[in-house]
C-alpha cells in the first residue's frame, strides 16, 4: 500500500491518507484495521525532519502489515498484520502541526474525535508533543513519543503518555562518561565548549550536557547560545577560536550545523574533538552538504546500521529504498516508538485504549527485539523508557560508525577531528 | 587580532545584506509597496542556482544571469498580475497581498522541491584568501564586490539616465508623469523587473555559501526590511551603508554581547535611529 | 433592503450563539472557539490598525504579554492562569505607551516596520529571560486542579467565554465609533496633518487607541494560554501572530465593526480545513491555498469581504431600481 518513491516526496505522500480509507473498506470485512494517529511537522521550518519521520513510519507500517522473514527478531517482523488481533492491519492517519503547539492540539483533537484513532505518536518538537499529549490524556488515548526529548514531558504525572527516546539527562550522562573515558586514554579533554541553538531543544539539551560535564568533573570553558537561523556564524566560531577548548559540542539544527562546519573551515579553526548532538548532524543533508569538511566528527545517535543481515541493517536497507538515503537517528527513533506502540496493541489483543495502556506498561523488549541501539524498552511509572540509551558515532566518508560505548562499537574511535 | 577578523567578517556579512536588500530598495522606493515576498524571491533564485548546478553542472557564470532573467520575468508577472491591481487600494491590501504571495511561493517551493536542505559544493568559487592573519572566503568577497557594483549601477541608472529619471518621475507623482507623456505602467513594471532581477543576482550568489531550503527567505526578509528602512526610503546608497553597518554591528555584538542578542542589538539600534531620524540615515522626508 | 440586512444579521447571530449545540461535535466546536479567539485579537487590532489606520505588525507584543502573564502567575504563585488577565492588561498598556510614543511619529511603512522591529526585539528578550521560561516556554496546569483553572476537555465553555469577551469588545468598539474618539480616529486615518488642522490631539488619540487595542489583544493572549496551556516565544510572540491579526482584519474589512470577525469566520475554518485535508500529505499545501486566497481577497476586494457585501447590495439596489423604472 505504501510505496514511497524517492523522487516525489511531497506528491507521493499525498496519496497516503487519501488512499488508506479506500483500502480499509475492503479490509473491514476480513479483520478490523487499527487506526493510529501521527502528528509531525510536515511543513514549516522543521518540515525536513517531519517528512523524514513520515517516510520512516511508512517503512514501519510495511514491517508490521507485511511478512518480513528477515526481520524475525522484531516482534511484528515475520508476521503479516497484528497476530494478536487476527492479523489486523494498522493504518496511520498523518497530521501536520507546522511546528505550532496550538495546531498540534487541534490535530490531536481531530484525530481522536473525527478519525477515531485508538493511539497516537509524534510530534518531534517537544512543545507540540506537550499540547497534543495533553489532549490524548484527557480522552484516555495512549500516546507514545518517539523523538521529543524535553525532560518535562514525563514530569507531568500523565497516565497515557509513554516515551521511548532517551532524554536530555541521558545525553549529558553519555557525553560526560565518554569524555572522562577519553581523558583516561591520553587525549587531553581539559576544557569543553558547548555551542547550543537557543530554542527549546538546544537550551534544554545544553543545560543537560553542562550538568553531565559537572558530574564527571570536566571543565566547561565556554557556552555559546546562538540563533539557529542566523545568517552568519563567524563571530561564534571566532569566539571558539579565541577560547580554544579541546572539545566542542554543537547542539544545532540542520542549517546551522552546515553553516558551522563551513565557517570553521573558512576561518581555519579545527578543535581536536568535534561532537554534534544528533539533530542537525544526523540530518542526511548534513553529510551531503559538508561531509567532506566534517570527517572525524563525533555525533550522538541511537541508530547505527550495524553488520550486514542484522535487524538494523535490514531496516536501514528498506528505508534507503524508500527515501534514497540512509536512515537517520531522528527518523529511526520515531520508527522505534511507533513499532513499540504496535507491539503493545498486538499484545493487548484489543483496540480498547485501556488495554493498550496496560500492555504499554507491561512492555519489556530486549535490545535484540528493537531496531535501534537502546538497551531495550521498559517504561517506568512516569512513562519514560528506563532502558533508553545513546550511542556515539563517528563520520567516516559518508557513513556514521558506532564508536561508543565499546560494547556496541563497530569501529575504533579515531582522533583528532580531521575536518 | 581576532577582533579585526570579526570586523572583516561583519563587513562581508554586511555586503551580503546590502546585496539582497538592493532589489527591495528599488521596489519600495519606486512604488511605496513593501514586498513581503522579497525573501522568497531570494529563495527562488537560490534554487535556480542549485538546479543550474545539479542539472547542468554550471557555476555562477551561468546561474547568475539565469536567475536575474528568471526573476526579472517573475517581477514583471507579479507587477501586472497582482501589484498593479492592489497599488491603488489601501496600504493594508498591499501588505497582505505580498504576504499571500510570500506564502504561495514559499510553500509551492516546499511542495515542488521538498523540505530538505540542500547546498552547492563549497569550492564552486575559489577557496579562502589569506591576508596575514585574516581569512576571507572568496565567494563572499565576490558577493561583496557585486553588491558594490549593483548599488553603483542602480544609483547611476536612477540619477544619470533618461530611463532612471522617468522611473523617478513616476515614483514622485504618477499624475504629473502622465501629463508629460510618461506611461507609468511600463516604468513600474520595469522597476519591479529590475528590483527582482537584482534580487535574483543576490540569491544566486548567496547560494554559493549559504544553505538552500524553501523557508530560507523567512530569515532573510526581516533584515532586508531593516536595511532598507535604516538606509532611508528608496535610497540606494543608503541601503549599502546600512547593510555594511548592520553586518559589522551584528558581528561585534555577537562577539562581545552574545550571539543570541545580536538581532536584538540591531533592532534596538534601528528603533533608536528612527526615533532620531524618522527618514532613515540617508533618506529625505 | 434594510429589513433584508437585519434578517441576515439575526440569522448569523442565531447561528453563532447556537453553534455548539447545533453541530454537537467537539472538533467543530473547537474550530468555533478558535474563530472567536481570532476574532477577538483581530477586532482588537482593528481599533488602532483599522479605525486609526496605523498599521501595526507588532501586536504579538500584547498577545504575548497576555499569554505570558497568565502562565507566569501560574508558575510563580500557583494561581489559576485566568488570574493573569489584569497583569497582562497592565503590562500591555505600559508597553503600548513605550512602543507607541516613539513610533507614532513615523508614517506609513516606517511605522509598520518599526512595530515589527519592536516585536522582534521583545521576542528575543523574552526568549532569554528565565522568568518566562526562556526559549523553552511556560506550561499551564498539566491537569486541572479545580474549576478556576478553566481547563476543560470540551471546547464548549471556551466558546461561550470567548463569545462573551468578543461581544464586550464589539460593543465597546461600537460605542467608540459613534463617540468623539471615533470621529478623531477617522480624522487621523485620513491623515495626520488634516487631523491636526481639525484640532485633533493626534498623538494622544493614537495612544488611546493603541492602549485600548493592546488591552484586548492581551486578553486574547491570556485566553489563548488558558485554552492551549502552553506558550513559547515563537507561538505567542512570533511575527506570524501579528501578521495573522492583520490578515484577518484586512480580509474581512479593516475599519469596520464586523469586518475582522468576518475575516476570522472565513480564514480560521479555511486554515483548519486545508490542514485537515492536505496537512497529512506533507506538501505544505495548506499554506499554498491560504496564500492564494489572501492574494485573491487583496486583489479583488481590497477593502475586505465587507466590500463584496456592500458591492452586492449596491448591485442589487441598482437592479431593483432598473426593474422599477422599467415597470
Summarize the structure in short.
Chain A is of the alpha/beta class. In chain A, 42% of the residues lie in helices and 16% in strands. Chain A is built from 13 helices and 14 strands.
Q: Any chance you could write out the topology, listing elements then pairs?
A:
The complex is a heterotrimer of chains A (419), B (285) and C (327).
Chain A: H1 9-27, E1 34-40, H2 47-65, E2 90-96, H3 101-113, E3 119-122, H4 126-139, E4 143-145, E5 161-163, H5 168-184, E6 192-197, H6 200-215, E7 220-226, H7 234-243, E8 247-251, H8 254-266, E9 273-276, H9 279-282, H10 284-290, E10 298-301, H11 311-323, H12 329-348, H13 353-361, E11 365-366, E12 376-377, E13 391-396, E14 399-404
Parallel strand pairs in A: 1-2, 1-3, 3-4, 4-5, 6-7, 6-8, 8-9, 9-10
Antiparallel strand pairs in A: 10-13, 11-12, 13-14
Helix pairs in contact in A: 2-11, 2-12, 3-4, 5-6, 8-10, 12-13
Chain B: H1 2-31, H2 38-56, H3 60-87, H4 91-113, E1 128-131, E2 134-137, H5 138-160, H6 162-172, H7 174-179, H8 184-206, H9 216-231, H10 236-256, H11 262-276
Antiparallel strand pairs in B: 1-2
Chain C: H1 2-23, H2 26-51, H3 60-77, H4 85-103, H5 108-126, E1 138-139, H6 156-178, H7 180-190, H8 192-197, H9 202-228, E2 230-231, H10 233-237, H11 239-252, H12 259-278, H13 285-300, H14 305-326
Antiparallel strand pairs in C: 1-2
Helix pairs in contact in C: 2-6, 2-9, 2-11, 2-12, 3-4, 3-9, 4-9, 6-7, 7-9, 11-12, 12-13
What does this structure look like?
The complex is a heterotrimer of chains A (419), B (285) and C (327). Chain A has a 7-stranded mixed β-sheet, with helices on both faces. In chain A, strands 2-1-3-4-5 form a 5-stranded parallel β-sheet, sandwiched between helices. The relative contact order of chain A is 0.13. Mean pLDDT of chain A is 89; it is low at 1-29. With 419 residues, chain A is an alpha/beta fold. Chain A has 13 helices and 14 strands. Chain B contains 11 helices and 2 strands, in the order H-H-H-H-E-E-H-H-H-H-H-H-H. Chain B has helices at residues 2-31, 38-56, 60-87, 91-113, 138-160, 162-172, 174-179, 184-206, 216-231, 236-256, 262-276, and strands spanning 128-131, 134-137. In chain B, strand 1 (128-131) and strand 2 form a beta hairpin. In chain B, helix 5 (138-160) crosses helix 6 and helix 9 (216-231) crosses helix 10 (236-256). Helices cover 76% and strands 1% of the residues of chain C. A two-stranded antiparallel ribbon of chain C has the order 1-2. In chain C, helix 2 (26-51) crosses helix 11, helix 2 packs across helix 12 and helix 6 (156-178) crosses helix 7. Chain C has helices at residues 2-23, 26-51, 60-77, 85-103, 108-126, 156-178, 180-190, 192-197, 202-228, 233-237, 239-252, 259-278, 285-300, 305-326, and strands spanning 138-139, 230-231. Chain C is built from 14 helices and 2 strands; from the N terminus they run H-H-H-H-H-E-H-H-H-H-E-H-H-H-H-H. Chain C has 327 residues and is an all-alpha fold. At the B-C interface, helix 3, helix 4, helix 9 and helix 11 of B face helix 5, helix 11 and helix 13 of C.
Amino acid at each position: 500500500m505504501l510505496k514511497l518513491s524517492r523522487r516525489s516526496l511531497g506528491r507521493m505522500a499525498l496519496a497516503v491518507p487519501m488512499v488508506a480509507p479506500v483500502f480499509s473498506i475492503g479490509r473491514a470485512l476480513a479483520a478490523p484495521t487499527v487506526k493510529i494517529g501521527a502528528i509531525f511537522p510536515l511543513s514549516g521550518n522543521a518540515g525536513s525532519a517531519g517528512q523524514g519521520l513520515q517516510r520512516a513510519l511508512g517503512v514501519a507500517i510495511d514491517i508490521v502489515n507485511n511478512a518480513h522473514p528477515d526481520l524475525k527478531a522484531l516482534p511484528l517482523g515475520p508476521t503479516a498484520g497484528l497476530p494478536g488481533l487476527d492479523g489486523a492491519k494498522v493504518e496511520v492517519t498523518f497530521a501536520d502541526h507546522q511546528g505550532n503547539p496550538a495546531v498540534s492540539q487541534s490535530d490531536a483533537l481531530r484525530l481522536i474525535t473525527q478519525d477515531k484513532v485508538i493511539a497516537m505518536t509524534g510530534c518531534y518538537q517537544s512543545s507540540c508533543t506537550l499540547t497534543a499529549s495533553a489532549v490524548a490524556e484527557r480522552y484516555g488515548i495512549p500516546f507514545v513519543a518517539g523523538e521529543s526529548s524535553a525532560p518535562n514531558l514525563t514530569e507531568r504525572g500523565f497516565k497515557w503518555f509513554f516515551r521511548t527516546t532517551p532524554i536530555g539527562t541521558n545525553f549529558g550522562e553519555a557525553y560526560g562518561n565518554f569524555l572522562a573515558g577519553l581523558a583516561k586514554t591520553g587525549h587531553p579533554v581539559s576544557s569543553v565548549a558547548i555551542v547550543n541553538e537557543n530554542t527549546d531543544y538546544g537550551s534544554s539539551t545544553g543545560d543537560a550536557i553542562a550538568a553531565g560535564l559537572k558530574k564527571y568533573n570536566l571543565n566547561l570553558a565556554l557556552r555559546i547560545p546562538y540563533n539557529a537561523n542566523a545568517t552568519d556564524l563567524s563571530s561564534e566560531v571566532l569566539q571558539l577560536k579565541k577560547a580554544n577548548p579541546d572539545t566542542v559540542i554543537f547542539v544545532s539544527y540542520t542549517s546551522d550545523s552546515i553553516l558551522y562546519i563551513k565557517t570553521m573551515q573558512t576561518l581555519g579553526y579545527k578543535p581536536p574533538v568535534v561532537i554534534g548532538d544528533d539533530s542537525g548532524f544526523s540530518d542526511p543533508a548534513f553529510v551531503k552538504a559538508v561531509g567532506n569538511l566534517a570527517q572525524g566528527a563525533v555525533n550522538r545517535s541511537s541508530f547505527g546500521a550495524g553488520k550486514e543481515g542484522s535487524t538494523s541493517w535490514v531496516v536501514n536497507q528498506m528505508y534507503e529504498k524508500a527515501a534514497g538515503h540512509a536512515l537517520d537517528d531522528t527518523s529511526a527513533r520515531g520508527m522505534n516508538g511507533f513499532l513499540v506502540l504496535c507491539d503493545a496493541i498486538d499484545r493487548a489483543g484489543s483496540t480498547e485504549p485501556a488495554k493498550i495502556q496496560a500492555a504499554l506498561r507491561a512492555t519489556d523488549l530486549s535490545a535484540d527485539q528493537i531496531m535501534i541501539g537502546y538497551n531495550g524498552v521498559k517504561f517506568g511509572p512516569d512513562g519514560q523508557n528506563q532502558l533508553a540509551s545513546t550511542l556515539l558515532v563517528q563520520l567516516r566518508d559518508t557513513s556514521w560508525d558506532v564508536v561508543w560505548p565499546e560494547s556496541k562499537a563497530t569501529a575504533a574511535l579515531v582522533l583528532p577531528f580531521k575536518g | 587580532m581576532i577582533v579585526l577578523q570579526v570586523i572583516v567578517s561583519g563587513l562581508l556579512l554586511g555586503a551580503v545584506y546590502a546585496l539582497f536588500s538592493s532589489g527591495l530598495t528599488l521596489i519600495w522606493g519606486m512604488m511605496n509597496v513593501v514586498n513581503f515576498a522579497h525573501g522568497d524571491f531570494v529563495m527562488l533564485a537560490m534554487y535556480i542556482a542549485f538546479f543550474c548546478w545539479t542539472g547542468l553542472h554550471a557555476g555562477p557564470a551561468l546561474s547568475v544571469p539565469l536567475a536575474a532573467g528568471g526573476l526579472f520575468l517573475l517581477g514583471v508577472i507579479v507587477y501586472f498580475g497582482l501589484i498593479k491591481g492592489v497599488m491603488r487600494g489601501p496600504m493594508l491590501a498591499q501588505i497582505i497581498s505580498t504576504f499571500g504571495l510570500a506564502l504561495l511561493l514559499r510553500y509551492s517551493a516546499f511542495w515542488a522541491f521538498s523540505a530538505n536542505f540542500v547546498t552547492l559544493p563549497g569550492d564552486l568559487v575559489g577557496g579562502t584568501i589569506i591576508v596575514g592573519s585574516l581569512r576571507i572566503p572568496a565567494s563572499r568577497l565576490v558577493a561583496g564586490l557585486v553588491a558594490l557594483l549593483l548599488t553603483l549601477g542602480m544609483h547611476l541608472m536612477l540619477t544619470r539616465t533618461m530611463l532612471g529619471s522617468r522611473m523617478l518621475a513616476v515614483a514622485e507623482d504618477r499624475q504629473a508623469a502622465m501629463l508629460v507623456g510618461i506611461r507609468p505602467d511600463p516604468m513600474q513594471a520595469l522597476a519591479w523587473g529590475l528590483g527582482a532581477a537584482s534580487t535574483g543576482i543576490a540569491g544566486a550568489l548567496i547560494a554559493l555559501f549559504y544553505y538552500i531550503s524553501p523557508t530560507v527567505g523567512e530569515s532573510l526578509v526581516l533584515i532586508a526590511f531593516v536595511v532598507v528602512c535604516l538606509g532611508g526610503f528608496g535610497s540606494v546608497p543608503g541601503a549599502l551603508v546600512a547593510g555594511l553597518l548592520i553586518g559589522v554591528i551584528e558581528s561585534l555584538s555577537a562577539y562581545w554581547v552574545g550571539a543570541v542578542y545580536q538581532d536584538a542589538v540591531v533592532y534596538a539600534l534601528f528603533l533608536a535611529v528612527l526615533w532620531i531620524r524618522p527618514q532613515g540615515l540617508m533618506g529625505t522626508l | 433592503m434594510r429589513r433584508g440586512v437585519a434578517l441576515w444579521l439575526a440569522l448569523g447571530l442565531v447561528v453563532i450563539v447556537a453553534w455548539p449545540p447545533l453541530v454537537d461535535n467537539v472538533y467543530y466546536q473547537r474550530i468555533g472557539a478558535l474563530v472567536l479567539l481570532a476574532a477577538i485579537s483581530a477586532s482588537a487590532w482593528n481599533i488602532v490598525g483599522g479605525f486609526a489606520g496605523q498599521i501595526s505588525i507588532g501586536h504579538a507584543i500584547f498577545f504575548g504579554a497576555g499569554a505570558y502573564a497568565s502562565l507566569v502567575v501560574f508558575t510563580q504563585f500557583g494561581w489559576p492562569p485566568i488570574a493573569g488577565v489584569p497583569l497582562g492588561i497592565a503590562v500591555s498598556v505600559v508597553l503600548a505607551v513605550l512602543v507607541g510614543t516613539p513610533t507614532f511619529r513615523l508614517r506609513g511603512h516606517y511605522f509598520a516596520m518599526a512595530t515589527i522591529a519592536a516585536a522582534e526585539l521583545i521576542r528575543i528578550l523574552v526568549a532569554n529571560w528565565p522568568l518566562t521560561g526562556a526559549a523553552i516556554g511556560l506550561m499551564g496546569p498539566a491537569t486541572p486542579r479545580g474549576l478556576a483553572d478553566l481547563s476543560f476537555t470540551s471546547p464548549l465553555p471556551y466558546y461561550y467565554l470567548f463569545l462573551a469577551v468578543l461581544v464586550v469588545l464589539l460593543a465597546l468598539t461600537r460605542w467608540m465609533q459613534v463617540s468623539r474618539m471615533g470621529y478623531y480616529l477617522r480624522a487621523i486615518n485620513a491623515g495626520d496633518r488634516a487631523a491636526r488642522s481639525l484640532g485633533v490631539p493626534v498623538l494622544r488619540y493614537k495612544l488611546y487607541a493603541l492602549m485600548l487595542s493592546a488591552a484586548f489583544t492581551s486578553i486574547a493572549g491570556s485566553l489563548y494560554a488558558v485554552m492551549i496551556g502552553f506558550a513559547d516565544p515563537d507561538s505567542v510572540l512570533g511575527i506570524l501572530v501579528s501578521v495573522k491579526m492583520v490578515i484577518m482584519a484586512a480580509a474581512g474589512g479593516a475599519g469596520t465593526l464586523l469586518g475582522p470577525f468576518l475575516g476570522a469566520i472565513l480564514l480560521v475554518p479555511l486554515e483548519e480545513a486545508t490542514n485537515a485535508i492536505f496537512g497529512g500529505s506533507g506538501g505544505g499545501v495548506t499554506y499554498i491555498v491560504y496564500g492564494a486566497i489572501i492574494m485573491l481577497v487583496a486583489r479583488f476586494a481590497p477593502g475586505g469581504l465587507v466590500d463584496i457585501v456592500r458591492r452586492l447590495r449596491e448591485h442589487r439596489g441598482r437592479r431593483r431600481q432598473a426593474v422599477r423604472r422599467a415597470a
